[in-house]
Amino acid sequence: MLVRNATLADGRVRDVRIDGERIDAVGTDLTAEGEVVDADERLLLPGAVDAHVHFREPGAPHKETWRTGSRSAAAGGVTTVVDQPNTDPPTTTGAAYDQKELCADDALVDYGINGGVTPDWDPETLLDRPVFALGEVFLADSTGEMGIDGDLFEDAVHRASEAGVPVTVHAEDATLFDPGARDRAGEGTGRGADADAWSAYRAAAAEIAAVERAVEIGVDAGARLHVAHTSTPEAVDIVADAPDAVTCEVTPHHCLLSRDDLGDLGTFGRMNPPLRSEKRRAALYDRVVRGRADLIATDHAPHTRAEKETTLLDAPSGVPGVETMVPLLLAETLDGPLTAERVRDLTAATPAETFDLDRKGRVAAGMDADLALYDLDRARPIRGGRLHSKCGWTPFEGRPGVFPEWTLVRGTRVYDGVMGTFGSADGVNVRG
Ligand SMILES: NC(=O)N[C@@H](CC(=O)O)C(=O)O
Ligand SMILES: [Zn+2]
Ligand SMILES: [Zn+2]
What we know:
- By secondary structure, this protein is an alpha/beta fold.
- It has one domain: Alpha-Beta Barrel (TIM Barrel), CATH 3.20.20.
- It is built from 14 helices and 19 strands.
- It has helices at about 65-75, 95-105, 125, 150-165, 180-185, 195-200, 205-220, 235-240, 250-255, 260-265, 280-290, 305-310, 325-335, 340-355; strands at about 1-5, 15-20, 20-25, 35-40, 45, 50-55, 80-85, 110-115, 135-140, 165-170, 225, 245-250, 295, 370-375, 380, 400, 405-410, 410-415, 420.
- The protein has a 5-stranded antiparallel β-sheet with strand order 5-14-17-18-19. It has a 5-stranded parallel β-sheet with strand order 9-10-11-12-13.
- Strand 11, helix 8 and strand 12 form a beta-alpha-beta unit.
- Helix 7 (about 205-220) packs parallel to helix 8.
- The protein is globular.
- The model has no long low-confidence stretch (mean pLDDT about 95).
- The structure holds N-carbamoyl-L-aspartate and zinc ion (2 copies).
């Protein structure tokens, strides 16, 4: 297959020839036998690598399945996902890993499977499997109640370091949460201004202190440490000033939404770590734009509408995002501060490099033909009902997004955005 006249992220117009699963050449005036697609100078990006999704199987297929989650990924130009361990059973033993791998057989895109840490985890059998990373290791409770104490975290970081496996950490220190704000969260309706109590409760200081401590532990152990969903500029700065072995990700929602949006979002805007002040959001996003934060990952955490439509304390934490990450960021190249190159680096090149995925994240000869084509003249309002996640809603309702016309995974068209159709489930384990 040959994709002719594609504009690459750096502005060059090139032909991209695909031979089987790989990109075989990037150049001008290339010829090929077989299918020829004229990109007509539309934007061709490497498929995004989302290092943080929750696909909910096994255990909660009513929220999401590997089939629906990976369709949502493909329809958003994401061709590799990394699934987190807070499923049921939690992915904390070799047997639980195997069970998740069976579910992942339904994946349309390539994937990694993380291993979790709880007091009853079984590091021997778990680390015997090709875990993508240990994590997200929860330093405070979130969905799945997998919060652990500092000693167990330290032990897990040492084991991971010895096994040569990276650690990703959910860093919040629950001892620094604000109990008064939690009481207010319990008294309020969860709607309008009341929804802000969750942000007051899981205060920014709790994240900053936990990131500081986690980085210390990671550096002492000589581990590869990746801090999940950093939501404060202070936390990003701690990571940026640490050795190269320490990296962080930022979510689209922490870049584009703040406490000011909670009036509209209500309990649907409850997530961990929570939305921050408009001032912190702007400073965080600025670090993403300037490249001080390493990469973007979605923390795609679907819950049903019915589950979210309750009181603030009863609503589960988390928002979906795997399908809207690249579309939102591309819209930000039109009337926001990002460039196509920065979007490529944040969503594909850097996550692939960070997690040693040698054949992912770049449009170059020899790489996997994971590609998505975008027409920047066709931004459209994001509608939760048109997305492919099982949850059927989005915190970004009505915002502009540039969705892919098609998405390829290793040379196979897994999503056709014009027809609205999907390919078959051929995703493979990137560590398998
Ligand atoms: N981010 C969230 O608020 N929720 C995540 C768990 C997590 O990433 O902490 C979930 O699995 O629902
Ligand atoms: Zn988390
Ligand atoms: Zn998460």
